[in-house]
Amino acid sequence: MQSLAIETRALVRTFKTEKGHITALDNVNLKVKQGELFGLLGPNGSGKTTLIKILCTLLYPTSGEAYVSGYDVVKESNKVREIVNMVSGEESSGYGILTVRENIWLFSQLYGIPDKVAWERIDELLKLMGLEERADTRVHKISTGERQKMNLCRGLVTDPQILFLDEPTVGLDVNASRTIREYVKKWVRENGRTLFLTTHNMMEAEEMCDRVAIIDRGRILACDSPSNLKKLVSKEVVLELETSLFDGIDLPYKFSIEKNLAKNTAKMRFLLEDESVIPKIISKLTENSIKLISLKKSEPSLEDVFIQLVGRGLHE
Amino acid sequence: MNNLRRNLKAVYARAYVRIVGMNREPSWVVFTIFLPLLSVAAFVYVYKATAPPEIINSLLARVIIGGAMLAFWMNVLWGMGNNFYYEKELGNLDLYLMAPISKTSILLGMALGGMFSTTIRAIATILLGAVLFNVSFTLESPLSLGLVFLMTLTSLYGLGMLFASLFLMYGRGAWHTANLMQEPIFILSGFYFPIKFLGFFIALLASFIPLTLGIDAMNQLLGGSFAKKWSLLPVNLEILILTGLTAVFFALAVKALNFMETMSKKEGRLTLRYM
Amino acid sequence: MSILKTIKYSAWLGWEMDSNWTDPFLFFLYSIVRPIAGTFLVVLMYWFIKAPEDLFSLMFIGSIFYMYIFNVLFGVSWVIQEDREHYKVLKYIFIAPSNIYLYLLGRALSKTIVTTIAVLITGVFGVAFLGVKISLTNPLLFLLTLALGLTGIAAFGIIMAGVSLLTARHNFFIGESLAGLFYFFCGVIFPLSVLPSWGQIIGKMLPMTYWLEATRRALLGFGDPSLSDMPDIKILILLVAFAIGFFFISILSFKFCSNLAKKKGILDMTTWY
Ligand SMILES: Nc1ncnc2c1ncn2[C@@H]1O[C@H](COP(=O)(O)OP(=O)(O)OP(=O)(O)O)[C@@H](O)[C@H]1O
Ligand SMILES: [Mg+2]
Fold first, then answer.
1. A46 Cβ inside 6 Å of ligand 1
2. Which of A88-97, B34-43, B126-135, B239-248 is least confident?
3. Which run of H or of E encompasses A219?
4. C167 to chain B: closest CA residue
5. Where is pLDDT greater, at B125 or B171?
6. SS3 readout for chain C
7. Does some domain include residue B275?
8. In chain C, N or C: fewer CB atoms in 10 Å?
9. CB proximity under 8 Å: B 140-179 to C
10. B37 belongs to a structural domain
11. How does pLDDT run across A95-104, given as a tens digit for each residue?
């Protein structure tokens, strides 16, 4: 128990809406060890944010239990709050009238960080994020990406035992994403902290996380290291097709479609048990007058694990 | 101990935003001190046009005191009441709810910051008003006056803290209610004429608004014999009641805050927009 | 045709936004109760001091028609604030193909309609219970005055909206303060003659002063004694100039201000603290 950073037991969360009850989390059982980089991978609306909110004491579970560092998130929420922090890639927090530095300082004060320590850490963090030139700019003038970096600084400035990141790099360019990933990873490793990350970017999950849980419609479908997860599809053949754009097609195989409207093409990714069906697929496509542009076999990724488990792509 | 320090820091930090925010807009001085004086001036001239000379000074003193206290009322309504709602819109509310502090500290910080900057505005209104309209105040008991002012502010901002949660829970409905309340409260709190004129019973009901008793007491202490003739209750009693109101509003504010926090966690409703 | 459509659509949108997509009845109640209470505050002051009847009537008419100045003039400039910082839709309105000037005009229209109801309610109440004697000696003068005045006020509001594009949240104070300015100098609730002479000069330079005066003359049969040397026709000409002049100024100045705001990149600033 002591060495677990996060534990949930039969966690359920439902929401009342006009249309009835939504089950956002359905019997979630997770264990995250201290010092671990843990990822939660799932499509939109699968319950990632809901789980984070419960673990950050912003939401009660409908049933089940959740512990953070051994503290019950409902009964000992104050203990939990002292040791966690959370940053969401979508948040727009802060006061437009304050500068970047002041905003981070403001939120550090809620955690009782002594002034001197806070200012030192802020300057250091801003430098690492490449924001030092923006330090004295008012928040209403900075860009979305800069804002996201500022938010990350806000999360790190309190030096939490467990950091929750809810899609931290959504909308960021490749370089900024990489900076953030590398820094967070280093920070976790060097300080023995724990990271709980949600994403629908499988590359991010694969690159950053020691273990990944795959969630869909509130249920955890699998939870293991990326390489072990990929073993789930090791026997499968992964086939990547680039085709002309089309509306929809019915095929008796597991596959995902990613449309590229700009190029007027579609990328199909098949997860096949047996290579011999490839000709069948191709003839089926031609029957539907879909033009084949390219075809290649590729390495299984976490995305394929998702296709395997759910029967559709992560981004559909 | 640690906990207390953390909460005090939070109070200070939230107040800091208020004060810095106000001072960072250079237009602040003109718009918050000089121009509001004009609406006070309008009421001053109503009395100049209609009142007999022997009571005019006392009436003008009332209008100026009213104008100064009005600044606090506006600040409580639009600075305090609306604030959680705006924090939610901005996405800050969850960050406050998630922090290891009492949410009351955030409200206190807001209140202190608002009080500080509004006090400057109020003092300026009184000084400028007295000079421009040639009004003299008969200061009778500085100690009582200080006490009255203090207790009026604490009860008023206690009410503001209560509003903050109510406004959030009831959303724009509360906003409309506040809008609806603004002018009736100008009438009921005796800003511009003694509330006793409306009859003792209405005046008593109006005393639930902390401004009413505060303004009545201040007029008794500053407005000379005419103001005393129209006084509602003895000053000391008014101070006592204001102290009671402070306690009541504060307790209710904490209750409403807890209710709001619990409800948001249970229903997931107050935090819908964020994330 | 499409101009009318935009205005109609904006008026409807304005209504929806003002009533916040909720119970229109509630909103209606509130936007009427508030200005009426403002009038009664002054009514009570006059009663408290037992002021003469004529003075009371002048104040009463001034006070209820001031509602237009407050609601429409400041309402429209507040639109910018609200759309920018509360609904955060301002930039989308700007990039939409419909004309933002017409959009504001539509919002002004919806505010004018709501205010008219408040004015009617208070007016009827005043005649029925407060002893205000409406003689309506000159209905034509009244209608003409109303039309010209409302055009000028809407245009003025749009000029202010342009200014709001460039200022921070303090245009809450600008609104409050300018309201005070007009309330004071236009002789809304007291005759101009009590003002010091410099104040009277300023008052006589503001178009709203003449609008209120013409309205009083048309409804009561008499006006502010300190303006009695102005014949009706002269006032009317002034009002025509006010309406047309401000209309053109508002088009030009709004264009100028929105271009400047775009240049400075502050169309979507938020300044809450
Ligand atoms: N406060 C709420 N009230 C009602 N329903 C909610 C609430 N919060 C979340 N939901 C619903 O619960 C489900 C899970 O939502 P959640 O935000 O956890 O998904 P997510 O995995 O974070 O998605 P995304 O990738 O889009 O951020 C969704 O169907 C959502 O509509
Ligand atoms: Mg989410």
1. yes
2. B34-43
3. strand A219-224
4. B27
5. B125
6. CHHHHHHHHHHHHHHHHHCCCCCHHHHHHHHHHHHHHHHHHHHHHHHHHCCCHHHHHHHHHHHHHHHHHHHHHHHHHHHHHHHHHHCCCHHHHHHCCCCHHHHHHHHHHHHHHHHHHHHHHHHHHHHHHCCCCCCCCCHHHHHHHHHHHHHHHHHHHHHHHHHHHHCCCCHHHHHHHHHHHHHHHCCCCCCHHHCCHHHHHHHHHCHHHHHHHHHHHHHHCCCCHHHCCCCHHHHHHHHHHHHHHHHHHHHHHHHHHHHHHHHHCCCCCCCCC
7. no
8. N
9. 172-173, 175-177, 179
10. yes
11. 888 899 999 9
pLDDT over 70 (residue A215): yes
Nearest partner of B42 among C100, C38, C146, judged by Cα: C38
- Chain A contacts of C269, Cβ < 8 Å? 96, 140-141
- Classified as helix, coil or strand, B200 is helix
Asked if the model's pLDDT at residue A34 lies above 90, the reply is yes
Q: Decide if pLDDT at B272 tops 50.
A: no
Q: Can you name the residues that pair with A198 across neighbouring β-strands?
A: A40, A166
Map tokens 């005046």 to a residue: B203
**B143-180 tens-digit pLDDT:** 999 999 999 999 999 999 998 888 888 776 677 777 77
What token pair was written down for C172?
Answer: 């809450």
Tokens of B104: 């009351």
Could you tell me if residue B147 is inside a domain? yes
Q: Which has more pLDDT, B12 or B35?
A: B12
pLDDT at C32: 76
Quick one: which atom of ligand 1 is closest to the CA of A51? 18
Model-level ipTM above the cut of 0.90: no
pLDDT of residue B274: 28
Residues C81, C49 contacting (CB under 8 angstroms): no
Reported as a single tens digit per residue, the pLDDT across C16-49 is 666 654 466 666 676 677 778 888 889 999 999 8
- Encode B22-61: b = buried (16+ Cβ within 10 Å), e = exposed: beebeebeebbbebbbbbbbbbbbbbbbbbeeebbbbbbb
Name the β-bridge partners of A270.
A239, A255
Q: What pLDDT score was predicted for residue C84?
A: 67
B272 lies in some domain = no
Domain count, chain B: 1
Domain extent at residue B163: 2-267
